[in-house]
Design brief:
The protein is an alpha+beta fold. The protein contains 9 helices and 9 strands. The chain has 2 domains: 85 residues, Arc Repressor Mutant, subunit A, CATH 1.10.10.10; 139 residues, 2-Layer Sandwich (Endonuclease, Chain A). Helix content is 54%, strand content 20%. Strands 3-9-8-7-4-5-6 form a 7-stranded mixed β-sheet, sandwiched between helices.
């Protein structure tokens, strides 16, 4: 009895994992449920798929048609009766490949109109602004663009205790900086951690520790100042101001000199 319960739990977990992978591959929840149901059922009519997948009858044909368009489901008509069958799971790889090619094409198209889009901006890149950005995507775009154009880079308030995903993000960013042969001074608020050791070994990188003064996590790149928060959501206050970056630089230099 216990073994049967264990097998049922294990099977359920496997299905849940498969559902998550298929959704990450671009299938909707309903498409995922219908596709997995058809794999188990083999050839089936819509009524049987509804019962197995537990999606509403009003959504079944819309979902099946989307799967047919993606090449993941086929229609069979036998004796005037319409049935459906799942395509071989290897078709998923073809579907993903086509998505990647389409994204690459869209990326090239978007890249070609970036100058025109920037020409529409009412705010000049040199105008003083303060903005709040949330999430890896928005912050990544900002800090990588600032890095590409950077002359002077300083970071203070760096802590090793952040989540690994945040630390890995900055490791990649600094590795790109090193590849671009751009120098950086870093003030850590802790030391002797693996994260600290990573930066101590980096080329074009000076590291000092300030264990008594612990400012916020601040990245200063020329006239750009970035103040970061590492709670559940990655958050950044981005300030474009020569005066404010000068103030942060003065603060950084004063701590650097006494450490």
């Amino acid at each position: 009895m216990k073994q049967k319960i264990y097998l049922n739990i294990t099977s359920h977990l496997v299905v849940c994992i498969m559902q998550e992978i298929l959704k990450e591959a671009g299938l909707t929840k309903n498409e995922t449920l219908v596709y997995l149901s058809l794999l188990k059922l083999g050839k089936a009519k819509a009524s049987k798929i509804i019962k197995e997948s537990k999606i509403s009858s009003g959504k079944i044909y819309e979902t099946l048609n989307k799967l047919i368009e993606k090449g993941l489901v086929k229609i069979l008509i036998e004796n005037g009766v319409k049935t459906f069958i799942a395509a071989d799971p290897k078709t998923l790889l073809t579907y993903i490949k086509e998505k990647e090619e389409e994204l690459a094409r869209k990326e090239k198209e978007l890249e070609s109109i970036i100058p025109e889009l920037r020409g529409l901006m009412k705010i000049s890149s040199t105008e003083e602004t303060v903005s709040l950005i949330k999430g890896f995507r928005g912050i990544s775009t900002l800090v990588y663009e600032a890095l590409d154009n950077a002359n002077d880079i300083k970071v203070m308030g760096v802590r090793s205790s952040k989540s690994v995903k945040f630390n890995n993000f900055w490791k990649r960013w600094h590795q790109r900086r090193v590849n671009l042969k751009k120098k950086c001074k870093i003030l850590f608020s802790d030391h002797k951690t693996d994260y600290w050791k990573f930066y101590k070994k980096l080329k074009n990188t000076e590291v000092k520790e300030s264990l008594t003064i612990s400012p916020s996590a601040i990245l200063i790149i020329d006239d750009n100042s970035f103040i970061f928060s590492y709670n559940e959501e990655f958050t950044c206050i981005h300030i474009i101001s020569k005066d404010i970056s000068s103030s942060f630089n003065a603060m950084f230099d004063s701590i650097w000199q006494v450490t």
